[in-house]
Structures are given as structure tokens and as C-alpha cells.
Amino acid sequence: MPARISRDDVSHVARLALLELTDDELERYTEQLGAILEHATDVEALDLADVAPLSHPLPVQNVFRDDEPGDALDREEVLGQAPAAESGRFRVPAILGEEP
Amino acid sequence: MNTTSTSGWETVIGLEVHAELATRTKLFSSARNHFGSEPNTNIDPVSLGLPGSLPVLNRKAVELAIRVGLALHCEIRPSVFARKNYFYPDMPKDFQISQYDQPIDLGGWLELPTGKRIGITRAHLEEDTGKNTHVGGSGRIGGAEYSLIDYNRAGVPLLEIVSEPDIRSADEAKAYVEELRSILVAIGASDGKMEEGSLRVDCNVSVRRPGEPFGTRCEIKNVNSLRSLGRAVEYETRRQIDLIEAGEKIRQETRHWDEQAGRTTAGRSKENSEDYRYFPEPDLVPVVPEAAWIEEIRAALPLLPADRRHRLAAAAGLVHTDQPVIVAVQRGLDGLAIDAIDAGADATRVLTHVEHNLAVDGAELLTGAVLAELVGMEMGGALTATQAKTVLAELVEAARAGAQGDPAAIAKAKGFEAMDDSAIDGAIAEVIAASSDEWERFKVGDAKERGKLTGFFVGRIMKATKGKADGKVVTAKLNALADGG
């Protein structure tokens, strides 16, 4: 049976998720993810031509709130919990690369 | 650069405009949506992506998105939010909530003042990101030592409005953004302030020989003004033509507009959208606007700029693409013009005043009746064009002070009383007698010579009448006299 997911796919997805995987882990996850995808083929076997895609499990739609301002968090308290802050802002290491 | 001609090439442009919606609070939480606050004062657990915080959708943001969709002739669709996953510190929960494959507004169009229609592919709701300030080095990303982040903007509702690749020049791109901005402002969906980032434009540019399939496009970011938009499109067009004519290929990539250097520089190669691993946002339910709500919003829409151009053109007996019509609507003075025309004023004269004499604050406070009265005096010969302009300025002053002035009273107070014919004739006779040499030359002169001397005589006669005579009347009388009248 052809593999449902390749080792390269897993390596790529791990990079997107900022995960560092060892060779052993790559091997193991490729196998495990393949098994999960294999399980999904059980669903593929069903005839779902007349079933609309479901984006949410609850039969609920249009949940809104009114456009009324609430209380803001206290800035000093929030910044006090950050690793670093400066001029009322969060300070982070130099950003590499451009904004997505 | 600038080495090749752009002739024989066609620029193809599609624009993505991000408009911040004019809500009081954020898209998914009750933190304030307000520009210019102290950094990190409009924040709450949702804006900061704190664990356990959950989004709840702002009804007003959905209403504004529907309003924009209707104004752009889109179909209003059931929509679903998705997570767009990426790591970047301006988005602390490591994903942006955005509508992806099921946007709220689908398939519409916008009419430019030229009458050309630009297709709207879609418009979808998403949350804005925080604002980074890069510190140290050159202040740009590359050499920065560290970055500072303000999350006031994180979670502000954005509507991303995507056009079809129907735009063909830098000027047309600017006209599209201007028209879109006036629509957004007219319907109260956004304040449209580009200088405050309320309206941000990404442009997709490619070039081709006319009639050929679309070329490879580049997406240009960091275009922050209409001027930048025009310059960026022109630069990118030439860059791509140069490359192709040198036998090279265009790479599909994101490019960054550098306003100071006046050029675009390469960014990342465009990654696949699969890399964002979109999936339906489990913490939000689908938005399915009821037909009654949509109709209620439609019924409350004001007339849009394009409708107003058509309406004014019909009232003035002009075409909706005529410049005075476009200008009157841009200035928001089309209602005034129509009222004045309805009150019997000459349409051409009314629009001339709107275009040339009413680009001032307070003009919108004038009533059509007063403007019609002024134009009536002018057309009847009681006021010269110059005098009418002066009276108009006084009328605007009065309107700003909360009163509608009386054109006849102002004219009288200024001493702008119509000169009767015999007084004008007398003044002309005096000036001719005092300048007999010039008068002889005027009498025998050809059109060119007369043209030169007309200024001489009119100037002296105006001086003699303290500016009360109508220049056009004087010129006609001079010619009639010279031709043996």
C-alpha cells in the first residue's frame, strides 16, 4: 500500500510548526500520521454526495456580541509579565524575515 | 531602469484593499478599536491571545461587511471563519482568524468615474495584527536589534476587498482606490484614512502583450498612499518589461515598495497557501445573515458616488463622466448643485462655481435657493463673473456663521450695482478719446492685434468704472464701435 504521507511531508509540516525532530522521531511520526490518515479512508469509503460539508459540530449559527466597549487590561500589569518591555510595548528579539 | 519603452505592453493590475471597519470595538472582543491611543491600552485577553480566551463575533462588523458587499453589488453569502497559521510576533496566538474559502461578500463590481467597471472578486472579514516597531540598525527589519510591539491594532476588524485583474494603468489603480474609499466613507464602513493605515493596498502587477494570456504576477506590499501606489505600479511595470525584454523570466514573489528609494525589492517567494494550514475556526460558528437583515441594511444605504454622478448629470443635462460632474460629487456639492438647478439656475454656471469657486469649507452649507439667486443675477447681467465670485465668497462666510446671506444685499453693500448701458458707453468714450493712437490701431487691426489691444482698453475701462463694468460686455461694445457701430 502506498504511504499516505511521506517523510518529507512530515519534515515540512514540522518546520512550519517550528518543531525540531530527530531522525527517529521523523520516522515514527511518519508512520503514526500515516496510520491516522489510513483511518480517514474509512470515511472516504462512504457515499457523502448529498451531505454538506460541516464546519462546526453544533447546530448553531449567528452568535454575535454588541459593539460595546468593555474594560481594557492594565498595561503595566500585562507588560510586567512579559520577558521584556520598553516604552509601553512588548520587546521581542529582532524579527527575521518579512511579515507574512 | 527606464531603459525600455512601455509601449506595446499592457499592465495588468489587481488590488487587495484592507479596510479597517469603523466599529467601536474589535472583531472578536470588547477592547476598543481606536487609532492613536497610547500603546497597549486597548488590549484584553483576546487581543493578546491569552490561553483560554475565546472570540465572540462583533455584530456591527458583520453589518458593515454586508453594507460594503451591497454597495459593491456582491452576493451576501453564508460565511465561515478559518485559522491561518503562522508564527510572527504581531499575532500572539500564532494564527490569524480570517474568512478563507467561504467569504461573506462574493462577486461584484465598482464603477469608476470614467464609467469603466472593475470586477470585485470577493470581500472577507479578518482581524488586523499588532504593530511592530523595529529598533536599532536602519530601523528596517534587516538591521534591527530588536522589535517593539503594540497590540492596540491586534483584532481590529478588517475587510479585505479583492478586485479582479481588470485595472490597466497606474492612474486607473489610483482611481479605483479613490472610488472605493469614497464608497466606504459614504456608507460609514470606514474612515478611509490611508495616512492612519485605515486603508492599506497590496497590488498584484503583471505585464503582457495585449491579447496574450496574463503574465506572471508580483505582489507589492507597503504601498501607503495613492502617490506610492502610482509610483510602485509604474516602477514595477518597467522592471518586468526590462526583465522580459532581456530574455529573463518573472518570478512570482512578494515585493516590498521602498518609498524613499522609489523601487520595489524582492521579498519571499510566494509560499503555497497550504503552508498556512487553514482550517475552520472551531471557536466560532458560521455566519448566515437572514434575508430580512440584509434587506434592512440595503434599504438604509445612502446614494453611492456613482449613482450621484448619474443623478447630477441627468439634472444638468450632462454625461456622468464629465469632469464638472465628477468634481461636484467628489466635493459632496452635487446636492447643492441639483437644488440650485431645480430652482431654475443655469446648470453650466452652477457647476462652474462648484468646480472653481467652491473648493472651500462651508460651501456645503449653502442652499440651492441662494446659489440660484446669485446665478440668476449673473446671467441677467447684474453681476460680472468676478463680482459673482466675490459675492459667493461672502455667502459662504455667512453660511459658516450660520446664516444664509442675501446675494442682492451683499452686491449692493459691495457697490456691485449693475451699470446701465449709457454709463458704460460714457466710460468707453472717455478712454478712447484719451488713447486715440491705440484706438486707430485697434480699428484697423487684425484679430491678433485687436486681441492684444482689447486687454489695454478693457483694463482702462474697468479702472474708470471701478470694476463695475462687465468685461465681456465692454469687449463686445469695443468691437462693435470699431466696426462702425
Walkthrough of the structure:
The complex is a heterodimer of chains A (100) and B (485). With 100 residues, chain A is mainly alpha-helical. Chain A has a domain at 7-44: Histone, subunit A, CATH 1.10.20. Chain A has helices at 7-16, 23-44, 75-80; strands at residues 64-65, 85-86, 89-93. A two-stranded antiparallel sheet of chain A has the order 2-3. In chain A, a hairpin with a 2-residue loop joins strand 2 and strand 3. In chain A, helix 1 (7-16) packs across helix 2 (23-44). The longest helix of chain A has 22 residues, at 23-44. In chain B, strands 3-6-7-10-1-11-12-13-14 form a 9-stranded mixed sheet, with helices on one face. Chain B has 485 residues and is of the alpha+beta class. Chains A and B meet through strand 1, helix 3 and strand 3 of A and strand 2, helix 1, strand 8 and strand 9 of B. Strand 1 of chain A pairs parallel with strand 2 of chain B.
Structure summary:
The complex is a heterodimer of chains A (100) and B (485). By secondary structure, chain A is mainly alpha-helical.
What coarse outline of chain B follows from CA principal-axis ratios? elongated
Strand arrangement within the widest β-sheet of chain A reads 2-3
Radius of gyration of chain A: 23 Å
Report the total helices of chain B. 15
Q: Secondary-structure element order of chain B, as H and E?
A: EEHEEEEEEEEHEEHEEEHHHHHHHHHHHH
The helix count of chain A comes to 3
Shape of chain A: flat
- From the N-terminal CA to the C-terminal CA of chain B, the straight-line distance is 65 Å
